[in-house]
Each structure stands twice: as structure tokens, then as C-alpha cells.
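Hi R.,

Here's the chain you asked about this morning:
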Amino acid sequence: MDDDGDLDAFVSNSDQANKVWINDGSGNFINSGQSLGSSQSRYVRLGDVDDDGDLDALVTNRLQANRVWTNDGSGNFTDSGQSLGSSWSHGVELGDVDDDGDLDAFVTNYGQGNKVWINEGRSDVGDITLNQAEAGDYTLTYDGANTFSLSRDGGTAVDYVLTTDPASTGSSETATFNLDGNDINIELKQGYAQIDGNDFTFNVQNTTTYNANVLSVDDARSAITAIDHAIDEVNQERSYIGSEQNKLQFTMSNLSNNIQNTEASRSSLEDADFAAEAANLAKNQILAQSATAMLAQASAISQNILRLLS
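And here is the predicted structure, written out as C-alpha cells:
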């Protein structure tokens, strides 16, 4: 749930708030400190209901409405404000029941019919394509009619006027904003109107392309600064990749140990104990030889008696 490569836990409770337990990577769980909901929760199902790449939670409750908790990508959950149903719910299953690409919910209830909740999807904007965009916080606003405005860090906004109506045509339209001399393409989908009154924001970091030269002292200094900045970015990415590689190596080592232990256990179960089997063989041979000797002795005694009588 916190996107660190290991499995965490979202626990629903009936006498206290729901809890999120974070895995430290070694199977040890730490309380995240979040208290989600009040009480009387019955079941939880995790899934990416808002299509942002992380696991959200739909929690069924007793004597209160079911809740959808959205994940910010770091394992921190926020109440989406939705109240699904009004009474006693049991289980829930997520799946794309209307074949529109997002997760819907089938909820089983007590004392009333089961319910299917359809996900409207995240249809405000789609892909955002940046071409050498300046770093900063970008805000996309909509006037409620046909004009979108894009600004960076609260500066001057650039407008884009729709040429079609994606809500009625069913096809998306790509808006191109030329901000600071760089093109930013934003795909507007069918439900773009829901942006009205709610700004859409996103952040851009370190995407500027540097044209370095050493024609002057100032240019050389700027070039060195740019190169140092690029090296820092590369080192950060290497550090991230190295941490992921270490996790994979740890997992591989753990799996290898498990394989070796399993093979050793199977070998001990399947292989015979040579010393014990050799002792059993010797014992059986002695018993067989003793029986043969006793039979021979008994036969000799009867023959001796016959000779005396004759």
C-alpha cells in the first residue's frame, strides 16, 4: 500500500477504528497511526478504484454507510466522502462489471437486497505529455463553458478553447498549452466538466533541458551547475534502483534458502538410513541361520535314535 515492494495490511475492526499496518520489509508490521472510521466495520476489499496506480479501500460497515478510502500513494488513506448504502453490509467484491475499465463494487447486505455500485471512473483528464516543461506546480482550471487555463506557480495562465465536446462525442480531445515556450499536452476526457470549481493540479520536477556551453565564464558556471544538477538526479535514481535491487536480491536469497531447506527435508524423508537397514539385514541373516541349524540338529537326533533301535 505504500509502494515499497512488500505487503502491508488494512485491518477492519468492529469495536475500534480501522488500522493500517506497514510492513518494514522483514515481515514486521508497524502501526501507521491512522484511525479510519469510527467502528463496526465488517469487511475490506483493496483495489485501485480511482485509477491512480495505488491500492484504495472499500470498507463495509454495520449500522452505518459503507466507505471508500483513497490512498495517496504512500499508504495514507483519506475518506472520499462517499456513503454507500445505509445499513448492515457484509462482504464486498471489486470488479469491472460494466466493462468500462474501472473497478465497480458488489456488496452483500443483511436485511436488504445486495447492491451493485458503479464506478464513474476518473474521467477528468488523461495523459499529460511534457516537452521540456519548467519545474513547478501547475494548475488547470475550467470556466464551466469551453475554456481551460493552465498556469505554473500562480503565474500568468495560458488558455485553451475546446474545439469539440468530449462529453457528447465520447472521444477525448488533447489540449496543447504553450507555457514558457514549452508545449504541455493534456488529454481531456468525457467527464472533464467535473473539474469546474475544482482545480486540477500536478507537479513537474527537473524536466528542463540544459543547453550547456563554455563560451564565457558565466556560461561555464551555468554549465557546471547544470551538470552537477544532472549528476545529482542520476545519483538519486541510482540510489532508488539500488534499493529496489537490494530488495530483489534479499528476496532471491530468501527463496534460495527455502528451496535448499525444502530439498533437505525431502531428502531426509525419502533416503533410507543405511546403518539401520544394515543392522536389520544382519539380524535377519542370524535368525535365518539359527533356524537352519536348529532344523539340522533336530533331524540328526531322530536319525541317531533309529540307529540305536536297529
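One quick note: The two ends are 104 Å apart (CA to CA).

Cheers,
M.
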